[in-house]
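In this supplementary section we document a worked example of the pipeline. Step one takes a protein sequence of length 124 as its only input; no multiple sequence alignment statistics are reported here. Step two produces a three-dimensional model, which step three serialises into structure tokens for compact storage. The input and output of this example are shown verbatim.
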Amino acid sequence: ALQGWYGGPGPALARTVIEIDGRRELEMYPLRVRVGRTDDAGQVLLLDKSMEVSRAELFGEVKRLACELHGITGQATMYHRSNLHVDWEEGDESLSLHALGFIDGHRLLLQRPGQQQTLSPKHA
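The serialised model returned by step three reads:
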């Protein structure tokens, strides 16, 4: 059906079938999330990086990918929030982004253990 809409001999449309709430659906556009991190003093850095992930991806796997994106090895805590006007929350690593209510543009914050925090990630 999609090829009929767009026609032509062009490249195939990239698409993925995901399972959400026990139903299969076509995911045409992954979520774009912004990933920040704290410095050694626990201050939130202004530099964010973006990545695209499926709504069906588990929070724990997204944390692994986010750490890789920022070059963080070892343990880290990851917080999330949908916009700048809500508090940071620590996510359950066994839940999907869909189950956690992720939307496009969701924000993530990585914090390494043992950092002295001068600014709480809940209010950064």
